[in-house]
Amino acid sequence: MRETLVLNASFEPLSTVSLRRAVVLVMREKAVVEQSHPGLRVRAAQVELPVPQVIRLRRYVRVPFRQRAPWSRRGVLVRDRHRCAYCGRRATTVDHIVPRSHGGGDTWLNTVAACAADNHRKADRTPGQAGMKLLVKPFEPTPADALLLALGLKEGESLPEWLTLPAAATA
Ligand SMILES: [Zn+2]
Predict the structure, then answer these.
(1) What is the per-residue DSSP string for 94-119?
(2) N or C terminus of the chain: which is more exposed, having fewer CB within 10 Å?
(3) For residue 129, how far is its CA from the centre of ligand 1 (angstroms)?
(4) Residue 133 Cα, ligand 1 centroid: separation in angstroms?
(5) How far is the CA of 152 from the centre of ligand 1 (A)?
(6) What residue spans define the domains of the chain?
(7) 0.70 exceeded by the pTM?
(8) CB-based contacts of 72, cutoff 8 Å, min separation 6
């Protein structure tokens, strides 16, 4: 899959995203095309776009983490959109899935956002021991994840059905 470079509104390079994601950002008017593949177009019934090589965000966004993100409590809350991993309600605390007292570390994969009530209920136990289920799978955020979070786009958000990408551009 071809990748598109994303620049902040200030022209500072932020990340690369897939061509599909770049097209969504342009169509949502979150970004403008700065440079495109000569001769290649994305065609649809009513829309035609150049295939973007470089896009630039219309508004400056503050991206919470750039390269390999160092673990932080704030970063976990941002990654999980302040949603409790156990009940989905608003989270203000960070839970260690394997508690630190059992050797669990401060890592992206061992921590999730949690509401204070669930964090208190789980206490010094694993989810299994506490009889609690994780609704989400923790992940290590990439720069592209961070960018999507900063733009408020959902990870699974996809292109409209009617939009087709040229075969040459998706190879
Ligand atoms: Zn909760």
Answers:
(1) EEESS-GGGT--S-GGGEEEE-HHHH
(2) C
(3) 16
(4) 11
(5) 22
(6) 3-63+144-170, 73-140
(7) no
(8) none
In angstroms, the CA 4 to CA 55 distance is 7
| CB distance 17 to 25 below 8 Å | yes
| CA of residue 54 relative to chain centroid, distance | 19
Question: Vertex 79, ends 71 and 153: CA angle to 5°?
Answer: 145
pLDDT one digit per residue (tens) for the chain, 171 residues = 578 999 999 998 888 888 878 888 888 888 999 998 887 777 655 677 788 899 999 998 877 655 666 788 888 888 888 899 999 999 999 999 999 999 999 999 999 999 999 999 999 999 999 999 999 999 888 777 777 767 766 544 544 444 444 544 443
